[in-house]
């Protein structure tokens, strides 16, 4: 059991002078919260049973309090506002009726399982914090569902459990129908994700989805608040709710962070660190994971996560880097200049807050490789980001430095990292699918150290920065009418692209013979070694 914020502490989510109320004395069904007053369970109630009282924590120390404040600040920055149609959020704290539905609102899942578990110094409970933040608004609660592992009566049977579940849903449905807005807390129970095993689906529990459908049917003003460690599928139900908040596992300060975002004292600024797909089957690794017979094949290659979704142009629920705010931002004047030593690129962009309230924007920098790249590349890759807090109408210049080496790909043939020459595009974006500004930059490629021989194909020779011009000159110098026609014909050139140069040199009509291939190979080798190529025999 975890202690809640101590009496007399600076906890922002508890306004009661009488200190924390044990869960056993809190209502387990629909009930209105009143500071300093508790309502016991109704006799014979089939709602999820209350847990034992939490122990009273020791008096808070200044260090412990400051650490808890830091935990809250971190949690506030992690909350991601995925959807906010009609600006349903933030809710007014001083008016209206708010139905809080979902056991996770009062029994939060705030950390992972296994070795990631820690004992918090205190715990902000979302339901408590919502009540404390409401300054005139009426906040009521219904569990809606029971979490796995909840205590049950010893003589309970399957029929009784089913009746209890129906009772919880009906209770939540009645509460939702009579309220202005519903805050529906859903998420994965701890048993669904942990270290030591892999999830075999990304769906919310079926009972929670059924609850959502029942609630939305009686009240369209629904805000879904998620609690989960890994991504969960939000399709197709996300189209039926106007607002969706991804809360992840926010730690001991998560309850106050969520209350702040929902009632507007905190402007959300979190961004998705992974794509939320429409289906698990859309994942780039779906066909190669989890493998077989003790072996896993990483078949997606470099197209991991958003790189794969974006390369396939796959429709997604919410893209990598996505996250909304209660204000708006604009971007302008993007410039990209290499620094003096050539090892880095300096990107500068102006960002303005064009909304009515202060907010924090996360400026994301992506790059796209040359359009004629000869290596497998993602559509775009995140190269850096910066966060900036702006008051209304404030504008600042944001700078992000990108290492030139970050643009390199690994060449298996050369056994080294290489930057490919050509036109690279740098993009400023609000997500991998929300590109605001683009600037093209021409970069010189790293010299190739490949030692070409006659066994390499015509295409490999022509693509080589040294061998390509040498071979083109040799064809032009010694061409015959037949060979000139063959090299000028795009179909024939495409046909010959995969043929080794040794084989082409043996063609009777070829303008490059076997001796020429040996000479050309020696020139490429000399250039790679930094020496002077040997002189032509006829010079």
Folded structure, characterized:
Mean pLDDT is about 85; it is low at about 5-10, about 15-50 and about 535-539. The chain has about 550 residues and is of the alpha+beta class. It has 12 helices and 18 strands. It has helices spanning about 60-80, 125-135, 160-175, 205-220, 255-265, 305-310, 460-465, 465-480, 480-490, 490-495, 500-505, 515-530; strands at about 30, 80-85, 95-100, 140, 180-185, 220-225, 245, 275, 315-320, 330-340, 345-355, 360-370, 380-390, 395-405, 410, 415-420, 420-430, 435-445. The strands form 5 sheets. The chain has a 7-stranded mixed β-sheet with strand order 1-4-3-5-6-7-2, with helices on both faces. It has 3 domains: about 25-270, 3-Layer(aba) Sandwich (Rossmann fold), CATH 3.40.50.1700; about 330-445, Immunoglobulin-like; about 460-530, no CATH class. A hairpin with a 5-residue loop joins strand 10 (about 330-340) and strand 11.
């Amino acid at each position: 059991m975890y202690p809640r914020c101590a009496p007399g502490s600076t906890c922002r989510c508890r306004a009661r002078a009488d200190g924390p109320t044990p869960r056993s004395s809190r209502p387990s069904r629909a009930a209105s919260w009143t500071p300093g007053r508790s309502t016991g369970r109704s006799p014979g109630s089939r709602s999820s049973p209350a847990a034992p009282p939490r122990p009273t924590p020791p008096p808070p120390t200044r260090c412990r309090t400051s650490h808890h404040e830091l935990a809250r600040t971190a949690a506030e920055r992690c909350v991601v506002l995925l959807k906010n149609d009609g600006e349903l959020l933030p809710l007014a704290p001083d008016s209206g009726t708010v139905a809080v539905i979902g056991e996770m609102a009062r029994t939060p899942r705030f950390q992972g399982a296994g070795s990631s578990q820690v004992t918090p110094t205190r715990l902000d409970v979302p339901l408590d914090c919502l009540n404390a933040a409401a300054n005139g608004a009426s906040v009521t609660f219904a569990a809606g569902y029971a979490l796995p592992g909840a205590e049950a009566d010893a003589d309970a049977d399957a029929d009784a459990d089913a009746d209890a579940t129906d009772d919880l849903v009906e209770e939540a449905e009645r509460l939702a129908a009579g309220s202005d807005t519903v805050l529906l807390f859903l998420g994965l129970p701890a048993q669904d994700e942990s270290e030591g095993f892999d999830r075999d689906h990304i769906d919310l529990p079926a009972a929670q989805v059924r609850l959502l459908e029942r609630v939305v049917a009686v009240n369209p003003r629904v805000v879904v608040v998620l609690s989960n460690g890994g991504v969960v599928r939000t399709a197709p139900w996300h189209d039926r709710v106007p607002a969706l908040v991804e809360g992840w596992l926010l730690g001991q300060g998560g309850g106050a962070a969520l209350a702040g975002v929902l009632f507007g004292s905190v402007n959300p600024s979190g961004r998705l660190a992974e794509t939320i797909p429409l289906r698990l089957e859309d994942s780039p690794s779906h066909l190669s994971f989890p493998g077989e017979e003790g072996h896993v094949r990483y078949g997606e290659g470099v197209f991991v996560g958003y790189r794969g979704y974006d390369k396939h142009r796959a429709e997604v629920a919410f893209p990598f880097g996505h996250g909304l705010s209660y204000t708006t931002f604009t971007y302008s004047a993007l410039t990209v200049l290499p620094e003096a030593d050539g090892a880095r690129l300096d990107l500068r962009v102006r960002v303005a807050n064009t909304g009515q309230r202060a907010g924090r924007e996360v400026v994301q920098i992506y790059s796209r490789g040359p359009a004629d790249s000869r290596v497998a590349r993602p559509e775009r890759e995140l190269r850096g980001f910066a966060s900036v807090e702006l008051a209304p109408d404030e504008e600042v210049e944001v700078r992000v430095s990108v290492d030139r080496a970050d643009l390199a790909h690994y060449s298996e043939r050369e056994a080294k990292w290489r930057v490919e020459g050509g036109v690279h595009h740098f993009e400023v974006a609000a997500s991998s699918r929300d590109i605001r500004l683009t600037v093209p930059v021409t970069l010189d490629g790293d010299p190739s150290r490949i030692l070409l021989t006659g066994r390499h194909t015509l295409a490999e020779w022509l693509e080589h920065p040294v061998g390509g011009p040498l071979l083109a000159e040799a064809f032009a110098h010694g061409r015959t009418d037949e060979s000139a026609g063959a090299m000028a014909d795009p179909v024939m050139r495409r046909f010959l692209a995969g043929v080794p140069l040794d084989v082409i040199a043996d063609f009777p009509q070829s303008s490059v013979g076997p001796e020429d291939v040996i000479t050309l190979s020696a020139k490429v080798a000399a250039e790679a070694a930094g020496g002077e190529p040997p002189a032509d025999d006829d010079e």
